[in-house]
Amino acid sequence: MNIACRVVNLQEEYTKLFKDQKALLESGAPNKVNALRDKAMAIFEEKGIPSNKVEDYKYTNLQPYFKGSLNLSLSSEAAHANVTNHFHCEVPQLETYNVFLVNGWYSEQNEKIAFPDGVVVSSIRTAAKDHPEVFEKHYGEVAPMESDAMVAMNTAFAQDGAFIYVPKGVVLDKPIQIVNIMNGETDRLAFQRNLIVVEENSQVKVMLCDHTVSPNKFVINSVSEVYAAENSVFDVYNIQNQHNLTTQVAGMYVHQKKHSNILTNSLTLHSGITRNNVRVTMDDEHCESHVYGLYLSDKNQHVDNFTFIDHAKPNCESFELYKGVLDDSATGAFTGKVLVQKDAQKTNAYQSNNNLLLTESARVNSKPQLEIYADDVKCSHGATVGQLDDEAMFYLRARGISETESRILLMFAFAYEVIEKIRVEPLKEQIRGLVEKRFRGEFDKCDSCVVCGQAGNTVSCL
Amino acid sequence: MLVIKDLHAKIDNKEILRGINLEVKPGEVHCIMGPNGSGKSTLSSVLAGNDKFEVCEGSATFNGKDLLDLAPEDRAREGLFLSFQYPVEIPGVSMVNFMRTAVNEHRKYRGDEPCSASEFLKLMRDKKKMVEIDSNLTNRSVNEGFSGGEKKKNEIFQMAMLEPKLAILDETDSGLDIDALRVVANGVNKLKSSDNATIVITHYQRLLDHIVPDFVHVLYKGRIVKSAGKELALELEEKGYDWIKKEFED
Question: Which sequence spans correspond to the domains of chain A?
């Protein structure tokens, strides 16, 4: 069931949409999901879609992107479509457990994969039926809807998404790859809600690959909640590879217990407007978190990475590194909030954000934001904005390497550090290749330029 | 091979080269000496195509082509090589990738097919042996964390890989200990043939014990004020530059 809505005044229409379609929203959705809707909607009504007047969204006014005529699938019909067969994955040859989501819905085309040792990968709807105790315990517990309007909006409208459960002591042999496809003949709005529970002593690596396959405007508000239990190791790589008409608000919320080790990496290779919210709560001692990101933007693209590392307990370590290359009139932002709470002694928190601006018109705002209430901690932060090094350029050219090739080598060298942080060796290889392709302007996302009318500088865009 | 006529160049409106004339023929080794600030490094930068310097007068032809008209990469592909006085560190660009790109760009320019992976590795291996460079260096990023001596050896290694017709060694000997100096000089000598030429820019006679020049030129205040055979270097070592300065000013 598709509902078309025309949004001009945001809250009013979204509120009306919610009220009018509540029956459909609730139909077939898990009880816990439905139970949170009213409260979430009340919060969303009060806060609204964030404009740049909201401090945490200072560099990204989301309001214009959530306006217009958008379609919302209120049932899983779209996910029955056969798009997954036609879909060509940019990360081939990688051994993964592969599942598809279409427009936020868990695809019923997914083959039944036999997961080892009781690992579960399913839609959240199925999960609520088959594993109610896990689902009810964790759904809605990690993502903070009280403080973030986009989480509240997602919680109010969410109907489906992926569920991953790794039982105690299981180390999954291959990464789980969740391919999110946006597709349709009309402009679309989608809410996706994922829940990942990694139990004690377990390890899992997840890839979230976001793609668009039709040249429509897509607005996506996704929220992923991760619960990492004691001694667990969890990696998530969010590979964003969408066309310029895409607006994506991607929320990744991780809750860590004792001795857990987590890694998030937001790899924004191509997208229109991207806002990544990453929040990690270290709710126990001896947690380790690695929060990384790489954004490559050109034309009129915009990428905003907002991170919040919450050192709630002592003896935890966090490592944060974000790097960006911005070309043409692209804009970017980074906010690195680190909170070291009063009891969180012996905290080590490191943060770094480096940006490479290739043109006069590319812009970036970088804002480290440290709040430290403990007195025995080590915290560092650094932000840089610069251009390609002239001397290095000349050195490469003096060896016979063309100007274009020298630029690519240096851009790649800049991005390299984040790619090196990938803890899945074949994925690292693939990302290297993709990043290089991106710098060469060989990405096949450029058909969107014809549609959106943005000026393209690279050959493949003409 | 290289013909420089009345070359003038400036940086920030300050004229550094004030009429250089020099001709280098295949098989020759030229040495350029001179006091600090006389324009030696400027000359090498201008020849390699560093756009920080502006050529305001004169000409330079390289094998019949107007050198000053070529982009730095094309000068390199034509066979000009500059061993940098201060090689640049480029973290994140591996030596292997750097050299493979450079070698293949040279091949493409000549109309040859790119090197296969195995051919390339063999080439690397052979040249590493030839210039006695530590194998581990080529597994790292370009010059990153290299010592002064390692950087200079790496320049000679790159020279061996690219087999230039004309190599300009800009103070390649400065900061080298005796062993490294010998390695660098041996590398240069092994690469020498009757088809290629070398310009050695140096302050010290000691390099010339290893690399024997056919001509020694003294650069002073942007001009070549004296040219002679290798004995001139010995004379300079002994007497310094004052007598030349005096001669020039008279």
Answer: 2-387
Nearest to B77 among A392, A400, A412 (CB): A400
Are B191 and B161 in contact, with CB atoms under 8 Å apart? no
Cross-chain residue pair A403–B73, CB shorter than 8 Å: yes
What angle (nearest 5°) sits at the alpha carbon of residue B65, between those of residues B9 and B162? 90
CA distance A141 to B90: 46
Report the candidate in A371, A304, A308, A301 with the shortest Cα–Cα distance to residue A342: A371
A253 token code pair: 């919320």
Nearest to B218 by CA among B24, B8, B34: B34
Average model confidence (pLDDT) across chain A:
89
With a CB cutoff of 8 Å and minimum separation 6, the contacts of A188 are A70, A71, A72, A73, A103, A182, A216, A217, A218, A219
Closest of A348, A337, A322 to residue A279, by C-alpha:
A337
Taking an 8 Å cut-off on Cβ atoms, the answer to whether B162 and A394 are in contact is: no
* Residue range A390-407, pLDDT digits in tens: 999 999 999 999 999 999
Chain B positions with Cβ closer than 8 Å to A: 48-51, 71-73, 75-77, 82, 84, 87-88, 90-93, 97-98, 101-102, 105-106, 109, 141, 158, 162
Cα distance between residue A429 and residue A91, in whole Å: 10
Question: CB within 8 A of A459, min separation 6: which ones?
Answer: A441
Query: With contact defined as beta carbons under 8 Å apart, do A41 and A25 qualify?
Result: no
Supply the DSSP string of A83-118, one letter for each residue. Answer: HHHHPPPSSTT---EEEEEETTEEPTT------GGG
One of 2.30.30.40, 3.40.50.300, 3.40.50.2020, 3.40.920.10 is the CATH number of B2-249, namely: 3.40.50.300
Is residue A456 pLDDT above 60, yes or no? no
Give the pLDDT confidence of A93-145 residue by residue, as tens digits. 578 888 889 999 998 777 778 888 899 999 999 999 999 999 999 999 999 99
**Which segments in chain B show pLDDT lower than 50?**
none
